[in-house]
Amino acid sequence: MIHRLPDLPYPKNALEPYISEETLEYHHGKHHAGYVNKLNALIKGTEYEGMSLEQIIRQSDGAIFNNAAQTFNHNLYWLSLSPEPTHPSKALHQAIDETFGSMDRFLQAFTDAAVGIFGSGWCWLAVDQEEKLRIRATSNAHTPLEHHETPLLTCDVWEHAYYIDYRNERAGYVETFWKLANWENASKIFADKEYLQNSGAL
User: What pLDDT is attached to residue 77?
Assistant: First the structure.
């Protein structure tokens, strides 16, 4: 199957002033597109050619894994952002309170984890196999999908996600991530894991 670069779910200038149109031009149009194109080239004529993105991530390694995982990670990242304010559902908010003590404590713990990643990577709010919420900090292309966890929300902390707008101030970028976080999408996945499949991320 051919994997395709999804359209952004909003105009390229919709996240300003927090994330610029120029950043989206490069991040979506160059970096994300590059992963998709490389993945399609790598899997042509291999056992992975007929697999879904999720199957490739769980069964491959090396360059094929990296490009498949980065394709998915970016797919979810765009859905993790919203130009309009959103709020967690009652059920997700309650689960966050029960797991982390409060929303404020969760936001601080997630922010600390994202800022603290050494080098490139991703920070996730995910549901583990025991149906518990977890903050996962992963390096490079790694994703909770590898461990059969369901990601609800992700923040990209590769430099290309923020360097145009924030230079080397990752902390400033992560702080403004919360002004854009798409809690509506996260809540839908939390309520029904099948929504992740149907959202276009996989």
Answer: 98
